[in-house]
Predict the structure.
Amino acid sequence: MPIPTENVGSLPRPARLQEAIAAYDSGDIGFDELAERQDAACRDSIERMGATGAPIVSDGEQRASSFATYPITDTLAGTGLADNLAADGQYFAIFDDGHHRQLPRLTGGPFRYKTFASDYLTKSAPYATRPLKQAVIAPSMLCLLYPLDDELDGYPREQFLSDLCDEAAKDIRQAFAAGAARVSIDFTEGRLASKNDPRNPWTGRRMLEQFIELNNRVIDRFSAQERVNIGIHTCPGGDMDSVHSADVDYAELLPSMFTMNAGYFLMQLASEQDKERVYRLVGEHSRDDANGVAQVCFIGVIDPLNPTVEAPEQVAEDLVTASRYIPKERLGSTDDCGFSPFSIDDKPKHGSPDFARDVAFQKITARVQGTQIAEERLGL
Ligand SMILES: [Zn+2]
């Protein structure tokens, strides 16, 4: 496909799976029963995503507690929390509807992932008949596990960051080894880093540049050839049909974001107020040579928080408009975010997770069809 199109990662978990997670947390079912439901949901995700015509698919992260916490806990309620962690860490984000999501807190070293994305991918790969993508979490998110100000006894911050980078690099490398054709790094904290929300202290610490530097410490361990298939996802959040940082101007993020030496970027844009202005910024700041790779810019053409399915015609129009600012050979299409980054997600605007799941596949179909229309219009 001349204009590449790729999803971010997650899909709404079926109500049946969400019930099983709750039953597992309360001890009513064992892990084997939960794993069976996860397997069924992954298989269904891969099959239905394939039926949309998408050239690359994912298992919808049906086994993950969330896009951010999969390496360190089995469930969002904290069942199976990894060693050296306590439940009461920093808020990762406070969303516009008032709900929040909290990270665990590191209590000592060494920091190790308990689960790698490849552990999930290995189980899902046999179901796939098309190339698979895998999303992983950025080290810049997990660095928030370490206390904001204090040093931990016997485990200095720099030792933690060094361990974290090792684990994050291993996560990416193992995902490729397990069969991922593409690996994208979730970087939702990037935009939030410029929010300065007094209820959430880390957002006021101007951490964006150190986030970027930390992520590059990992990305730069990969060759240019490998980085062609390593992406970055940016968004203003997407949980319970709400966002956390849509009010932060992209102009605060994009110039820094494109200094990461990744080969492609999956960017929320469908729900942006002034898309054309952001297309221009993307065109200005993305690089055709990021240490040997051209940065391909996947613009968001689907809004997972809105139950109305986009018309393929609208998708095509967005891409054609974007092509005035972003070189055609570096243009792609994506969804604004994962459809359900957190395993427990009520989807209030959608009414139910099962309905949201049906809608998600319709939206992916619209993205694929609209991208094909754009290719024809752009003579690709
Ligand atoms: Zn996102």
